[in-house]
Amino acid sequence: MIFPSLLALGLATANAALAQKAGTHEQVGDTLVSAMMMFLGNEGKIYILDKVEGNPTQINGHSAYAAVWDIATRTAIPMDVQTNPFCAAGMHLPNGSFATFGGNGAISPGGNLGSVLNPGGSSASYDATYQDYDGTAAIRIITPCEGDPTSSPGCTWYDSPNGLKMQKHRWYPGCEPLADGSVVLIGGFTNGGYINRNTPNDDPETSHGAAEPTYEFFPSKGNAQVLNFMTKTSGLNAYAHTYLMPSGKMLVQANYSTILWDYTNNIETALPDMPNQIVRVYPASGATAMLPLTPANNYTPTVLFCGGIYMSDQDWGNYSFPFANTFDIPASADCQRLTPEPTDGQPVAYEQDDDLPVGRTMGQFIALPDGKLLVVNGGANGTAGYATNTGVTLSYSQMPYGMSLAAAPVGQPALYDPTAPKGSRWSTAGFDTSTIPRLYHSSAILLPDASVFIAGSNPNVDYNASTYFPTTYKAEIFYPSYFAASTRPVPTGIPSTLSYGGNAFDVTVPASSYSGSAN
Fold it and tell me: Which residue has the higher pLDDT, 439 or 494?
């Protein structure tokens, strides 16, 4: 099911939002858990997942690791999940459900291993204090509904330690929906770490069992298969960037490498490397987005990569920690465009785009309904992740920002206009600057009224309210420039549900319901 407000994203009238000043942030309460991951479930609810940690809010006798936010009342209530969703992948399913895949092993307070160890002793299957189970192979599914999200049948998370599982254990896997409604899951760590390699990197395929170089499908289409690209990009291939193309092939980007992947036959076609060896995947965590598909570009996909960071291969370190003080290294401001399947006969090539107004790691693009892209969150220095030391700063007591491997939060959003001439695509005019740091495990999402909900940040191994960059529950809404309009569009004719195929329909937006050009 697709809800009508999702079809009209950015078009619905919202009286409360109209009262806000365009270009400003508004603090809107607490999320109860830190928003590591979130998605819009229906007209009125945002579902939020955190990693397992000692959040003060309790549910069923343990700390809460999930919540649901009510957009109208601006309040959250906790939800129960059983398996640890720490850095899982997430994806919408064709029926309107949302699924998350993988995560981390069971942990106890302080981020230590849970009380019941898995065979081998390097991870845990359960912890008696936090009451969490191993989530590395877990599949969690929720179908948004109007009932009580804590108890109504069908409205709670389906998450069972003995239920749906992937074939492989995956932490930080790539995830992409396919044309047939299935999802492909790519790579990941098997247990955890900073980057996905040992030093020396003498086994780039599996890192002696710590790296997962395979892909599989949900629902399953057979045994997991090795993707050679994961070996080529060993170390820096967590949360690989993936985009399905019109040909049915998939753009995959990680480390400095780029391919078009025929996932049906597991055939890789090499594309040019990322210029300047700037890393965009985790933990460099650049912002990426597909530009709007329009008649003007013949609906040809172009992907934008912005930010991330350049570090030497040595500085990236290994599973344990970076070998450099990442928080002292400036994030990249570089932006590149790539059209993987050009229709004009030109060779595939990265195209230098306008730089970000300021370098940014952990930025996130939000596609706005006016065809522009908003980037929010992140820091001007460093990378995602957390650690008690680096290869340079050997003691936690000397770490300048607690466990954070990033610094200099970037609180001012920036707006990108893909149709503007080069040299004038970025703007921050009229935008205020949030005072809330949004670093590792921060997130943002577009709301039905076309404002932007921003939450999260927790570069810490466990709940910590007193460190330099504390666990953050405060949520904000940012109001883009179009909130300066005296009237807002009011669509009519939106069907209550959508399915694949079926009859065409018209959505009408009366000219009297908006100001300015219809285009």
Answer: 439
Residues 434/476, Cβ–Cβ less than 8 Å: yes
Quick count: other Cβ atoms within 10 Å of Cβ 491?
Answer: 18
Burial class (CB in 10 A: 0-12, 13-18, 19+), 410: buried
351: Cβ contacts below 8 Å, ≥ 6 apart = 336, 337, 338, 339
* Cα distance between residue 393 and residue 387, in whole Å: 10
Quick check: 85 and 49 in contact, CB under 8 A?
A: yes
Q: Do the bridges between strand 335-338 and strand 303-306 make them parallel or antiparallel, or are there none, so unpaired?
A: antiparallel
> Are 244 and 177 spatial neighbours (Cβ–Cβ below 8 Å)?
yes
Q: What does residue 512 show for φ and ψ, rounded to 5 degrees?
A: -70, -10
Is the bond preceding residue 85 a cis peptide, omega within 30 degrees? no
d(CA 359, CA 381): 8
* Average pLDDT for 452-465: 99
Residue 215's Cβ-side half-sphere holds a number of Cα atoms within 13 Å equal to 26
Q: What is the reported pTM?
A: 0.95
pLDDT at 299 over 60: yes
Range name among 78-82, 182-186, 373-377, 483-487 with the lowest pLDDT average: 483-487
